Amino acid sequence: MATAALIDGKAFAEDLRARVGEAAAAFAQATGRKPGLAVVLVGDDPASQVYVGAKGKACEAAGMASFEHRLPADTSEAALLSLIERLNQDEAVDGILVQLPLPAHLDEQAIIAAINPDKDVDGFHISNAGRLAVGQAGFVPCTPLGCIMLLKDRLGDDLSGLDAVVIGRSNIVGKPMAQLLTDANATVTLAHSRTKNLADVVRRADIVVAAVGRPEMVRGDWIKPGATVIDVGINRLPPEPGKEKGKLVGDVAFAEARDVAGAITPVPGGVGPMTIAVLLRNTLVAAHAHAGQPAPGGL
Ligand code: NAD
């Protein structure tokens, strides 16, 4: 049986980061300032600390200014809202990202609602969700935007006639993914934890996007031969004896699916690297809008 082509998200993301870097340099030349991203972290969740560190480094590597705000876990909602208000007003800040999850005493929806939608480079603000829903320009969450870029790179911009199944209906991945696929003319099914006969639903799909968070749930015999499979899941298995860390796997049983699919993203090295690259892209777009300049082409 033919083995699926590997969709190399790492290489695509590196190329996107390089293009963003060039456009950021041109922006700095034209305006006298770098595009700026403020990242706010509340508390000391180890995974969040790693993500925030990686975002700051990626910003600087792309020639952007990074403003990190690390606040203690017991920060009050009023203090966080007042920081966001300052960042909304700050002319050096084009994008604002509040790292989720927030400690339980903070109201995530209220915090996100306080971000100026035109600086909401994560695309989580209700205004940006609404803009996506009605087809207006706005910020689209980074992970699904990265997935649609990979899909269009492989299948072309027009997905007419293709059946797509998205598994997972979260606000940050599944729902916006379904909307992006619909906008690209695919016929979309949004499956979730209450979907009956999920394997049969997935078997119809020319495009499968798995965003569940359950290791290797999607089996090889669920995949239609030749389908394009985008695996968003990042799951760490328990460590093998003698090893400190478990292996990272996606939501798709990769070895099985590779024998059936036409193309598939690996985990790691597929969707993961796209998320930060798209965050930089969104920040660059925000900077242009903020400076009253037309959006940079080709990104
Ligand atoms: P979430 O927990 O918010 O949503 C999971 C979704 O899966 C829910 O909508 C639920 O209905 C669905 N689901 C749960 N069990 C199911 C089942 N048995 N059958 C079908 N559907 C089921 O998760 P999320 O934030 O959307 O993230 C999903 C996965 O993607 C996680 O593994 C996460 O780590 C990963 N992720 C990766 C990136 C990246 O950069 N690559 C970014 C975001 C999330």
Automatic annotation (TrEMBL):
This enzyme's EC code(s): 1.5.1.5, 3.5.4.9
Cellular component terms (Gene Ontology): cytosol
SUPFAM superfamilies in the record: Aminoacid dehydrogenase-like, N-terminal domain (SSF53223), NAD(P)-binding Rossmann-fold domains (SSF51735)
The UniProt record lists the keyword Glycoprotein: no
PROSITE patterns: THF_DHG_CYH_2 (PS00767)
CDD domains with a match to the protein in the record: NAD_bind_m-THF_DH_Cyclohyd (cd01080)
Catalytic activity from the UniProt record: (6R)-5,10-methylene-5,6,7,8-tetrahydrofolate + NADP(+) = (6R)-5,10-methenyltetrahydrofolate + NADPH; (6R)-5,10-methenyltetrahydrofolate + H2O = (6R)-10-formyltetrahydrofolate + H(+)
Domain Tetrahydrofolate dehydrogenase/cyclohydrolase NAD(P)-binding: 141-289
GO biological process: L-histidine biosynthetic process; methionine biosynthetic process; purine nucleotide biosynthetic process; tetrahydrofolate interconversion
A Pfam cross-reference name: THF_DHG_CYH_C
UniProt-listed InterPro entries: Aminoacid_DH-like_N_sf, NAD(P)-bd_dom_sf, THF_DH/CycHdrlase, THF_DH/CycHdrlase_cat_dom, THF_DH/CycHdrlase_CS, THF_DH/CycHdrlase_NAD-bd_dom
Residues binding NADP(+), per UniProt: 168-170, 234
Domain of life: Bacteria
Subunit description: Homodimer.
Family listed: Belongs to the tetrahydrofolate dehydrogenase/cyclohydrolase family.
Protein role: Catalyzes the oxidation of 5,10-methylenetetrahydrofolate to 5,10-methenyltetrahydrofolate and then the hydrolysis of 5,10-methenyltetrahydrofolate to 10-formyltetrahydrofolate.
Record's protein name: Bifunctional protein FolD
Species of provenance: Erythrobacter dokdonensis DSW-74
Underlying gene: folD
